[in-house]
Specification:
- The structure is a single chain.
- The protein is mainly α.
- It has two domains: 1-43, Arc Repressor Mutant, subunit A; 45-197, Tetracycline Repressor, domain 2 (Orthogonal Bundle).
- 72% of the residues lie in helices and 0% in strands.
- The protein has twelve helices and no strands.
- It has helices spanning 3-18, 25-32, 36-42, 46-65, 69-72, 77-86, 94-106, 114-123, 130-141, 150-170, 172-180, 185-197.
- Helix 1 crosses helix 4 (46-65).
- The chain is globular.
- The N and C termini lie far apart (48 Å).
Length: 199
């Protein structure tokens, strides 16, 4: 691994464990066996480092969610979306989702740099997302309702998906204590979304 990759790997671990606010740059540098000055040559601020970690985390989540092509070859778009969500086991990406929740709470103002803004927006390009293309297939083959636009369906579904599961991960024990112990949020989410988009 390069020094830059080691920094990002260690930052991801510490951001997940302690949160972005409570993570100190000196602690990341120490774990990578470099000094702070060297770390700042790669990432001039903690915000820039956190953005770089978020981009890698989002790519990891995207890869985790992708359905192998051989499983969707003969399916219509609606069934592809159904399969996409049915395969998700959130315990496998719990830490990644926890970091995205922390990141969303931490960054609510401007991007740290114009270059990071451009890179960040680029990795979120809908056309590169499998879910977007499954919905598109469903609109084309008639298995997904056509009175809503592709962009509307994709952004509504994907943003609600992230928001719900970030909350479930952050407040897991609290929700059990708050009378939600018998609610299967995952199955309900899938059922409600699928019934809402079916053509």
């Amino acid at each position: 691994m390069t020094t830059k990759e080691k920094i990002i790997e260690q930052a991801e671990k510490q951001f997940i464990k302690k949160g972005i606010v409570n993570t100190q740059i000196k602690d990341i540098a120490s774990e990578v066996n470099i000094n702070r000055r060297t770390l700042y040559r790669y990432f001039p601020t903690k915000d820039v480092l956190a953005f770089n970690v978020e981009m890698i985390v989002m790519e990891k989540i995207k890869r985790y969610l992708e359905v192998p092509n051989n499983l969707v070859n003969n399916l219509n778009g609606y069934d592809k979306v159904k399969l996409y969500f049915s395969r998700v086991k959130f315990n496998e990406i719990k830490d990644l989702m926890k970091f995205t929740a922390e990141f969303d709470r931490y960054f609510q103002e401007e991007y740290p740099t114009p270059q990071l803004e451009e890179s960040f927006i680029k990795i979120l390009k809908p056309e590169d997302n499998q879910l977007y293309n499954f919905i598109k297939d469903g609109l084309l083959d008639g298995s997904i309702r056509k009175d809503l636009s592709l962009d509307s369906i994709y952004h509504f579904v994907s943003n609600n998906f992230f928001a719900l599961f970030q909350r479930l991960i952050l407040r897991e024990q609290h929700l059990i204590n708050e009378h939600c112990e018998n609610v299967d949020f995952h199955s309900l989410f899938i059922d409600i979304i699928l019934s809402g988009i079916k053509g």
